[in-house]
Amino acid sequence: MDNNSFRYEPLERFGEGLTTRRPWNTAALAGVERLNGRVAMLGFAAALVGEWITGLGPAGQLLALLRWYLG
User: Which bin fits 37, alpha (ψ -120 to 50), beta or left (φ > 0)?
Assistant: First the structure.
């Protein structure tokens, strides 16, 4: 293997990578964050609908599911 075929990133101070400008693919990151936000909104809506149908909060729904599964 050639010595120049594999290079590490240079060392940096703690936390510096969070504040410096890097050549990230910001368009792809924006798409991932948009998808993540939309899925979170769907999960929140599903929790509200589940609470409306059962009358139990999220913890109560999990407990009811556990009781049903074990009983």
Answer: alpha
The single residue listed with the structure tokens 């929140």 is: 44
**Residue 63 reports pLDDT greater than 80:** yes
Q: What is the pTM of this model?
A: 0.54
Per-residue b or e along 34-46, where b marks 16 or more CB atoms closer than 10 Å to that residue's CB: eeeeeeeeeeeee
Rounded Cα distance between 41 and 24, Å, is 26
Give residue-wise pLDDT tens across range 35-47.
Answer: 999 999 999 999 8
- Let me know how long the chain is: 71
Q: Who contacts 50 (Cβ-Cβ below 8 Å, separation ≥6)?
A: 58, 61
